Each structure stands twice: as structure tokens, then as C-alpha cells.
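In the previous lecture we treated proteins in isolation. Real proteins rarely work alone, and many bind small molecules. This record shows how such a complex is specified: first the sequence, then the SMILES for S-adenosylmethionine.
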Amino acid sequence: MIFKILLIVLLLAVAAPFLIKFIKHKSLYPFMPFKYNFKRRRVTFAKTLKLLDERKAKMIIETGTSRLGLQNTKGDGAATIVFGKWAQQNNAKMHSVDISEDSVNGAQNEVNIQGLNDTVTVHLNDSLEFLRTFEEPVDFLYLDSYDYSKTDTEIQVKSQEHHLKEFQLIENKLHDNSIVLIDDCGLPGGGKGKTVVEYMQKKDWKVLIDAYQILLVKN
Ligand SMILES: C[S@@+](CC[C@H](N)C(=O)[O-])C[C@H]1O[C@@H](n2cnc3c(N)ncnc32)[C@H](O)[C@@H]1O
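The predicted 3D structure, ligand included, written as C-alpha cells:
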């Protein structure tokens, strides 16, 4: 009897790290291969993908591109590839804009690898310039540019103001069925979304999920 109990304890001790790793692994399978861990963004990415399906989105804009392609699903999110893949499967288009040549090259490389060139256009530009001149209706807006700092309050405010300006520049291209997702919100100081979400809530937008990312739709 003692031997059996010891054996079970031993097996549990050996299996525990694997079980914990499995539970912590937040994949978007079957939409994305199981190996990619979307961690704290899984819940909002999954809901956004569902909304994109339901609302039959045709135009997606992302500010701040997937500079490391699919290599950093945990850290950055790899949204260019996730939503680009959705767009390709659903006959939609995606524009991703970034101010850094390195980031654009990194994202473009993965777009090429994934065969998304017919669907995803990666633009080298300041997001504010890009949004100012964008002419078409936008069904899904993903704000994730100006890098946030957990400690530097000056950078925090600049990032928050930048994301507010982005929204204001494209606001009139959004409509009653549009979806807005803002990254890096669950951070000290309120994250990238603090100021823009306050603004949006005064303008009839409703928060659907308030987590690491904030997901909003029209009331
Ligand atoms: C966190 S990364 C974006 C991650 C990406 N959305 C993803 O899901 O993998 C932030 C990016 O924003 C870009 N960025 C910073 N300021 C910007 C601006 N004013 N206009 C456009 N992009 C900007 C940076 O160059 C960087 O590549």
C-alpha cells in the first residue's frame, strides 16, 4: 500500500511541471497552430475573432506591426499574422502601419512566409499620418503602436496621448458595427488605452472585455 502511494506521489511530482505548463499555454488552436502561446491576449483575441466572423469584417487596421513575426506571440501578440490570416480566410483586407523600418521588415518577412501578401499591406509611416489620410470605412481597429513603459510616467502619458490621437484621426471611418481592440492596457498607469478608452466611453462606446487588452464595440 505504502509503495503504491509513494509511486502515485512520485508520478504526480514528475507530471506536475508538464501539467502546469499545459494549463498556462494559451493557444488559439485550431485557428493558429497549437504551439503558439498567446498568453494574456488569448481571451481578447478569441473574442475579437468571433466578432469579426459575426460582423463579417472587411477592413482591418493595425497600428504598430508584428516586428518579430510569429516569434513573439507571448510578448507582442503577433496580431498582424493572426488577424491577417483571418482576413485572408474571410476575403477581407488588413493594413498594418509602423514607424520603424526594422519592425516593418520583420512583419513583412513573416507576411511573406505565411503567404499573406495578397491580404496584408505593411506600411512604413507614422500611424498618425497614415490614419489621417485613410479613406475607407474601418471594421476593426487595433491600436498597438507607441511603446508603453511600466515605470516612466512621461512615456506612459505620451503613449496614451498617441493612442487617443490615433483613434480621433480614424473615428469618422468607424461605424456602428466596428470593433476596437487596444493592446497593453493592464499595466501600471492604465496602459496604452487609459485616455482613449475614457474618450470612447463618452462617445457611446462600450467595453466588452477589460483585461490585459480592452475590447470595445458601439453601445
Ligand atoms: C508592441 S509593437 C507592435 C506589436 C504588434 N501589434 C503585434 O501584435 O505583434 C509596437 C510597434 O509600434 C511601433 N510604433 C511606435 N510609435 C509609432 C508611431 N508613431 N507610428 C507607427 N508605429 C509606431 C514601434 O516601431 C513598434 O514596432
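Summary for your notes: DSSP finds seven helices and seven strands in the chain. The pocket of S-adenosylmethionine is lined by residues 62-67, 76-80, 97-100, 103, 126-127, 144-147 (CB under 6 Å).
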